[in-house]
Amino acid sequence: MTVAWQPTASIETLRRRADIIGRIRTFFAERNVLEVETPILSHATVTDLHIQSIEAPFKERGATQEEICYLQTSPEYAMKRLLAAGAGSIFQITKSFRQGDIGRLHNPEFSLLEWYRPGFDHHALMDELDELLQVVLEVSPATRRSATQVYQDYVGLNPHTATTEELKICAEQRMSWLPDIPYEKNTYLDLLFTHFIEPYLGQEAPFLLYDFPISQAALAKIRLDNPPVASRFEMYFKGVELANGFHELQDATEQRKRFEKELIYRKKNSMSLVPLDERFLAALEYGIPDCAGVAVGIDRLIMLALGDKDIASIMSFSFSGA
Fold first, then answer.
1. Is residue 186 in some structural domain?
2. Could you write out the three-class secondary structure of the chain?
3. Which of 140, 227, 230, 294 is 20 to 30 Å from 185 at the Cα level?
4. What CATH number has the domain bearing residue 123?
5. What pLDDT sits at residue 254?
6. Residue 181 pLDDT > 70
7. Which domain holds residue 37?
């Protein structure tokens, strides 16, 4: 039997990939941002409703029972523990893992760039992300619009104030069918965004979308505007999501409430239940500095920088050939 053993990327592509990663490290070194490493294997994981972790059973030598550990979906919680310990501005390039989709933009194992900047809000971090992309992608500065502006421009609704019924009607008017999934306000917001907004963002230059509905705050601070908004942003280029960032929530009590709410939803919808990361919550309780943080998909970034259409073409070995 003949087995395909060759890499999915050419050696020349891997050289160009290494050059881009080198430029990213130089970018942060010039700004005195410390490079760190945190564990890939952990005792807890995220409760995020859109992310499914990959379990990694572990049995200590001599133990009678096996423990379910997790391959980390991002280094966020561990990096925030470093922030609480006084690490200051930090960045990391690491492998992350997620259960689920495999395709042109998804691989179960992928490379992630994540960094945190004490003293920054999400607008200051958007500035720095924009500078990084100008270096890596050699593009013009990003355009920026709030979630309010974008939803109103593309689907004619305000995402902060629209009711679930209004979003439902909007989706039904634009789609001949709706996926068979549980429908809540966020479900309709996501559906409208992925089908009628996201594909059009950043076609000429990178695009920064900011100030999300509070129901999509995740780990972001909520700003008490009228209406309130989540201090969160995302970066898009050529219709591809590249980055997700926050003006980071510092309130441990509020963060626990958000996690517990997600666990209730998981149980209600027969999703896997995971343990809360109590070490991360303890770090929040101790206190992390006022800061902003962002995660960038390295594989997608390199794919776009090299003009490719599939992340497998810029990986040594994609999941299908691993």
1. no
2. CCCCCCCCCCHHHHHHHHHHHHHHHHHHHCCCCEECCCCCEECCCCCCCCCECEEEEECCCCCCCCEEEEECCCCHHHHHHHHHCCCCCEEEEEEEECECCCECCECCEEEEEEEEEECCCHHHHHHHHHHHHHHHHCCCCCEEEEHHHHHHHHHCCCCCCCCHHHHHHHHHHHCCCCCCCCCCHHHHHHHHHHHHCHHHCCCCCCEEEEEECHHHCCCECEECCCCCEEEEEEEEECCEEEEEEEEECCCHHHHHHHHHHHHHHHHHCCCCCCCCCHHHHHHHHHCCCCEEEEEEEHHHHHHHHCCCCCHHHHCCCCHHHC
3. 294
4. 3.30.930.10
5. 96
6. no
7. 11-59+66-142+233-321
The residue written with tokens 């960032």 in the block is 245
Q: State yes or no: pLDDT of 18 exceeds 70.
A: yes
What the block records as the tokens of 101 is: 């989709």
pLDDT at res. 182: 66
Pair of tokens at residue 120: 């920054």
What's the number of domains the chain is made of? 1
